[in-house]
Give the backbone structure.
Amino acid sequence: GSGGAEPGAGDKPYVALVSKGFQHQFWQAVKQGADDAAAELDVEVTFEGPETETEVEKQLTMLQTALDKNPDALGYAALDSEASIPMMTDAESRGIPVIAFDSGVESDVPVTTVSTDNLAASAEAAKHMAELVGSGKIAIVGHDQTSQTGQQRVEGFTQYIEENAPGIEIVDTQFAGGDHLKSADAAKAIMQAHPDLEGIYGTNEGSAIGVVKAVQESGKAGELTVIGFDSGKAQTDAIRDGLMAGAITQDPIKMGYETVKAAVAAINGEELEPVVDSGFYWYDETNIDDEEIAAVLYE
Amino acid sequence: MTTPSTTTARTERAATRFGNRQQLQQILAFAGLVVIFAFFSFASPYFLDWANVKGILLATAVTGIMALGATFVIATGGIDLSVGTGMTLCSVMTGVFLANLGLPLVVGVLGGLAIGALIGLLNGLNVSYLRLPPFIATLAMMMVAQGLSLVISGTKPIYFSDVGGFDQLAAGELVPGLPNAVLIFFAAAAIAGVTLSKTLTGRYALSIGSNEEATAISGVDVRRWKVVIYTVAGLFTGLAGVVMASRLNSAQPGLGLGYELEAIAAVVIGGTSLRGGKATILGTVIGALIMATLTNGLRIMSIPQEWQKVAVGIVIVLAVYADILRRGKEA
Amino acid sequence: MTTPSTTTARTERAATRFGNRQQLQQILAFAGLVVIFAFFSFASPYFLDWANVKGILLATAVTGIMALGATFVIATGGIDLSVGTGMTLCSVMTGVFLANLGLPLVVGVLGGLAIGALIGLLNGLNVSYLRLPPFIATLAMMMVAQGLSLVISGTKPIYFSDVGGFDQLAAGELVPGLPNAVLIFFAAAAIAGVTLSKTLTGRYALSIGSNEEATAISGVDVRRWKVVIYTVAGLFTGLAGVVMASRLNSAQPGLGLGYELEAIAAVVIGGTSLRGGKATILGTVIGALIMATLTNGLRIMSIPQEWQKVAVGIVIVLAVYADILRRGKEA
Amino acid sequence: MSDSPALLRATGVSKSFPGVRALDDVHLDLRHGEVLALVGENGAGKSTLLKLFSGIYRPDEGAMELDGAPMSPSGPRQANELGISVIHQEFHLMPDLTVAQNIFIGREPRRAGLIRDDELVRRAGVLFERLGIPLDPRQPVSHLSVAGQQMVEIAKALSFDARVLIMDEPTAALTETEVDTLFRIVRDFVSPRTGVIYVSHRMDEIKEISDRITVLRDGRYVDTLPTASTATREVIAAMVGRQLETGVRPGAASSGSAPGADGREVVLSVRGLTTRKLLRDVSFELHRGEILGFAGLMGAGRTEVARAVIGADRSTGAVEVQGRAVRIRNPADAVRNGIGYLSEDRKRYGLLLDQDVVRNVMLSALPGMTRAGFVRDADGRRVAAEMVDRLAIRTPSVTQTAKNLSGGNQQKVVLAKWLVRDCDVLIVDEPTRGIDVGAKDEIYGLLTSLAAQGKSIIVISSELPEVLRLADRVVVMCEGRVTGTLVGADATQHDIMELATRFGTDRSLVTTGDSA
Ligand SMILES: Nc1ncnc2c1ncn2[C@@H]1O[C@H](COP(=O)(O)OP(=O)(O)OP(=O)(O)O)[C@@H](O)[C@H]1O
Ligand SMILES: Nc1ncnc2c1ncn2[C@@H]1O[C@H](COP(=O)(O)OP(=O)(O)OP(=O)(O)O)[C@@H](O)[C@H]1O
Ligand SMILES: [Mg+2]
Ligand SMILES: [Mg+2]
């Protein structure tokens, strides 16, 4: 955040970022990376996003307002590429370079995309689940049924299991909005309905913590393999305490950082790679304190 | 007792005085909006820019149309929580009609409106004939509509890219410089205004909200009219759904939750009482504009997002309090 | 006219008979819950299991406590939209007191409650002295609380891992087999029940909801009592925040939106009228249990999420309609 | 006339509510061209019978006929279509709508689907002119006084082309001037093809306007008597089932010397009370044990004085209680200083309609009925039962919901609330509104005995006989000013009327705006 200072009023270049979310830790980590880059490259950055990843229209309105502020570059993580086409055209006509981040925008306008591959990342989660469980029943607690991210994190996982782990059956997939409490309640209900459950996968921080909570509260700690996504202190603690087998983390800080860096490059008229992959990592008890991993985890 | 003729003269004078006063009050209702506008114009050079004002109007359109419908229900002393997800269901069904079934544009749009009317009709029947509290009836509808949107769409957006011209419904500019969505909003507001103040539907909505029992005793078929009123409200929900779909050029099944509170807030900020009996469409339009302007202005000023909430909350309190003071003085 | 003594005897007998009838009615209020329970017990072998029932109770606790507070406000004919994000702010402040400032456990918990009371106090002052409609006053508070939660926590969760024993507040089992969170919910319900029916706060809340003007003319300082009532409601919000924080062993600043509708729904399903004047705590508890049971049961049956919404909506309509029929017969 | 069928007839009708048999085998005949008075004690079943005629209730048993043809209206609308117009005891008005909109609700003239409000106003204006009612059709009903609302109800009833006009205590809220207007309207209405049923507790009015009197008691038909040849005493005897002494000034206060004069302590002193709307420099004193009457025409400002004194409306001026200057900002302050106010508008300012008798009776005295912070409901039930006996409130039980009581019994509940609170100063505004003759006497006795116990009472009443009978002194108001104070025993109706019309004009029925 740039505080209340008037963006663009000073001499610093101004980069407006419109993300998919705001208060989730993942997006806060993106923001942190963006702020880091802003400090380093001496630019002004604002960061905004709707409350949930279903609010396509709210995001468009934010995007509109961001454009009206006449930024020097725009970073945009589209909730729905299709819906934002007119805005992209608008940005282009105003000569504002657009950097897509997170999932990319299906349009020629963005000069580059700093992306993360949710399908591949969740397949990685599935791979570890398959290894740890071997065979049996597992379930998924998803965070969002309609957003692209939410769907891909379930899809990538399910696809991998179906194709590579014939002994494993996904008996239930429930969505609980990424709300910790509701995820816990949902996970408990699933465990109740499937007493012989071997593992549960939570698709974001809130879901994963909810699953851990549920396992704890039903006194089944150690009996189930829990795999999470994203980081945050509760998750890293759970991994250290052995409540969670491990989790996938993307590198949101890098994503934010690279987005701003690309924006500055675009402002300066530099050529950019079409895609910058911000990557993802599997982390568990064994590597959680490795330098490389610790750097991408956020509290 | 004075003679009849003097009495009439006197009462007519009084009536004129009252009429003028009411007009004055409606004009003054703009005050809050004007102050907010003026403030942001000073605070940011980007605010008072036609592109941005257009943005504000566009942001007002969908919630505003929903708020128009909600005004009718609130006028009866009821509440409509189903406008948000109901709108989404209408979007999705418009998508089904146009993109999946390939029906002609007009048919699809009318279909979307019809779904809205159907939602309203069911709300009305539940409230009237099952005697459910409006909060419960429309809360249930809110959930059902949300679920059905997901079921029908298969939890995936439906795109209108292949439906020629659908996006022009909202984005086109019949009046150059003004997106159709805004035009539709204003037209809908005009229709709503006439309906509220000049038709039986509106009159009985206010009458029911003022005293339901007395209205029934006066020979108005309250149950039937409530169904009509909720259905009319549903039509606006349908219109909002169509405009939303056109604006996004897609039907987003996950959308909608939370819009109901915004719509109701716009209505209440506009001076309509949740107890019913008192309602103005102009107020609702202003209320919706105030909400959209506030959000936009704070964003334009790059106030950090977390502070924006705080600011909006405080400004709403101030705006409504100022309105109360103003009315207090006039009464 | 009969002689005084007979009349007295007669009226007192009648009173007892009425008392019994009311008790019967309260017992019958369970009917909806029992039917839902019975249904799920048949539908799934896993449903009627102590572990699962415990899960349902635990899922009820936080929303239930919020709903208790909301009952008081709704009894006055008001509405409290700030319970959800208000609860979050109380969580966050408890985190600040315990984790950041390292205050003793008791102080931190009382601090969390005090923040809740403060939120209620401000709501009450806005409603009473600024004469804001409760919808507006608490909507504003909902936004302010949400913003402040993010600001104060720096948009990051606050963890209680280092605060020894805090998580036991919710997870511990003073009564073996029953998590404290549930115990706290029941204790809070008992206190709320007595407060509503046996203290001036509760009685005036009902009187104000029944007829505010008549209550004022009867010599009740309505404005002051409204402040008291909202403050009491805020205390429950505070308690919900503390329990929530303890259960998650962290304060999650982004949570809370949407809980207010759930809490209000629980209250209304429990038979409390949004028009005010009629409220029962037992009803609210049952309403909250119905909501949690439905969600749990449908999940246990692995009904897909989108259909769950539809089912919950329909069951709410049926449950409340059955309740209306039952009352209709008795009245 | 006697062999032509009755205009309206009910034979053997019965109607029960849970715990109450409101009507039991009741007969009623309304002949063409007559005014039939319907009388009975509070809760006798009068309003219930009328609601059968208007289709609000259906009889459990029995039949009704209109001009010899069986009739059973399905609702008020159908009753109107049949030519039966009813003015109910409880108003059925929409406060947020205008006077004209209220009168023509359900019958709005339209052009191309749009309501023609100008036409509504015009029709209402014509109606008012015909009836001589000084109301502005464009005024919201919420701005009207109770009397103004009553006039709207009357106008609404007469806006139908009715053959049967039924009026349930239409004069309870009216002063004599409006009563005269109403009677003129009734006389104009009566013709060989029409008839009027008139319910009232005011015997002199019944004497004046009616041709015959039908008496109900305890939900049963007692008798129908020709007005001209029946003494009031006999009517009352038929109503209450025994002989009753009425109209006699109770002994205690009739000593001739006003207590104020013999130097009793001043309990309440009001100086220079002024409000923005109406009151100008109102001053008076109330002594211990005194009953002070307030008389005046409608809109003279009596209610406004009371509301200003108890802090319900803003005012300037000085108030002293027991010689201490006090600042009363709201009714709670007033009660704290021992001043209670019983409003003239029981529905709006008196009752918790959807709560039971116990809760209503306990409301003002609630803080005194607690122990360790907990309300003792047993006390409330006991006190309520006592009040039910003392005021003869007709109710199946103390847990009956207030809105299910008859109008007069509701009024008694409000009075009971203040008796339980036991204030030193009690301001009662139209205390016997809708209360039957017998109970009225008991209430008079009660007020007098309260005064004898050293309480001080202000009685605001539009019934001059009531004021004259109760008051030790009478303050007369006109147009917001005190125009004189008379010693009760020496005052006459003539004196009061002279002072009450000092400024020679009459104010409209509009009381600008509610206090909110
Ligand atoms: N809706 C109702 N529910 C229950 N009891 C009722 C209802 N309406 C009337 N009653 C009862 O029926 C009886 C007759 O009431 P009604 O209103 O007809 O009396 P009334 O003769 O008009 O009395 P008043 O002179 O006080 O107006 C009363 O005991 C009253 O309590
Ligand atoms: N329903 C009401 N709400 C608020 N104020 C009222 C109401 N009714 C009366 N008043 C106050 O009292 C005044 C109307 O009664 P007012 O004192 O003028 O007449 P009155 O002498 O009591 O005669 P009546 O009561 O018969 O009309 C109004 O000016 C108003 O201030
Ligand atoms: Mg009656
Ligand atoms: Mg008066």
